[in-house]
Amino acid sequence: MAELKYKDITEKIIGASFEVHKFLGNGFQEVIYQRALALELSQEGLTYAREIEQEIFIKNFLNLLEPEELILL
Questions:
Q1: Is 26 in a helix, a strand, or coil?
Q2: Alpha-carbon distance 59 to 63, whole Å?
Q3: Where are the domains of the chain?
Q4: Up-side HSE of residue 9: CA atoms within 13 Å toward CB?
Q5: At a CB cut-off of 8 Å and minimum separation 6, what does 57 contact?
Q6: Pairwise pLDDT comparison (30 vs 64), residue with the higher score
Q7: C-alpha angle 34/11/50, rounded to 5°?
Q8: φ, ψ for residue 61 (rounded to 5)?
Q9: Closest by CA position to 47, among listed 12, 7, 73, 21
Q10: Which of 3, 8, 34, 61 has an alpha carbon 20 to 30 Å from 43's alpha carbon atom?
């Protein structure tokens, strides 16, 4: 089986997301989860930006993301 290219960062993001869900549970507004995830990502040493304005292209259109950028929806 091939090694995943971004395995380390993927594990950190998923782990941070699970920590937020485990601590907060269900029922809060989205902004609360955003703030909590931002704190968890910081603790993992990941840089981030919240709610950036980004053009999204799908199907056969060019994606304008930089090679090392990741957007979570």
A1: coil
A2: 10
A3: 11-43
A4: 10
A5: 63, 64
A6: 30
A7: 25
A8: -95, 155
A9: 12
A10: 3
